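lol ok so funny story. i was supposed to be doing the assay writeup but got distracted and ended up predicting the structure for this chain instead. priorities right. anyway since i did it might as well share w the group, maybe its usefull for someone
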Amino acid sequence: MTGKQLPDAGADWATLKGEMLDMAAGDANWRGLKTAVYVFNAGDEARAVGRDAYVMFMAENGLAPKAFPSLDRMEREVVNFALDLMGGPEGAGCMTGGGSESIFMALKTARDWARAHGRTGTRVVAPATAHPAFNKAAHTVGLEIVRTPVGSDFRADPQAMAAAIDDETIMLVGSAPCFPYGLVDPMAELDALAAAHDLWLHVDACVGGYFIPHAEAIGVDVGLWNFRLPHVASISADLHKYGYTPKGASTVLYRSPDLFRHQPYTFDVWPCGSMSTPTLAGTRPGGSIAAAWAVLRHLGRAGYQAKARDVLETRERIQAGAAKLGFEAVGDPKLGLIALTNPEKDTLAIADAMRARGWVSARTGSPPAIHLMLQPAHIAVVDSYLADLAAETRLAPKASAAAGVGHYA
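and the output, tada:
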């Protein structure tokens, strides 16, 4: 079977399942708890709830709320849950297919809001650590991302961002946390900057939106970061990350319905009449909406707080164990994502060796670091991870001068 042509005859499920299992043999072993990126594993029970809810509504279409009022209700409740968690119960928003789409919609909405208020500028100022999805979205909707250096703490530098603001600027961006290092930008300072220049402030909480509120509830303090700040206009937050729902599910949220009304697109010069869609997609899979609603309801605040405790304990134990081996965390991580760099050793060589042992993670290049996005299930493999890390660190070559610590610029 070459996969170049659709076969003339169909195949039974047993045959197809066998082929699929063969193809998956070389995939990252997330079920074996050795994957710290791409998959968010909250355990078998939460995964089963998401799977069963998805299958239950897999044929339904989120494009048609009048045909499927159940999906409309579930999406509205998911958005309400999110707004409440993020300090904006009077706001509005919707679900999207992922963080990139949420970011896309936020930029498009900010652009259209600016135009509605007589502003023709096209510049968005963001720290160098902001996700590449901002550039992708800006390229698509005719905006320009101006990236500024981060500070010595690897977080957004408000002074550098202030220096980049000009008459063409319509939007500022901060992360909660940024993907490279897991650090929450100084959002209160960015909020003041947005107020001083009357700019739209977007918080990219795709990683932290469904984690930080529960970490805060058990004592973690990352500072103000959400709609509790008076000038935050929009937030992107992924359900399929620390919300532990099946992919693809994210939310894009706005401080008020008045801001959200700039997001939908309507076309009415068409033989079928008017068509309006809130997101980039037309058809939206009902399974993603139903699964998100079900997992949120299944875990509840208590369940999410318990998962957050496991993630935080895992990160603290790995950070402490790695420190004994000469590793340093980049910045001061307080959540579930950490970047570990070893000034004396070739950190990326260690990352390669850990990958050969089956440990799949991302990495950063500036500084060179092993990037771990930890999950609740990882609490069971902390000791084995640290044992392998110790073995590979002992064998690793020394760091070269070319791999010195630096900042994104």
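Residues 403-409 have pLDDT under 50 and may be disordered. Residues 286-323 form the longest helix (38 residues).
back to the writeup now i swear
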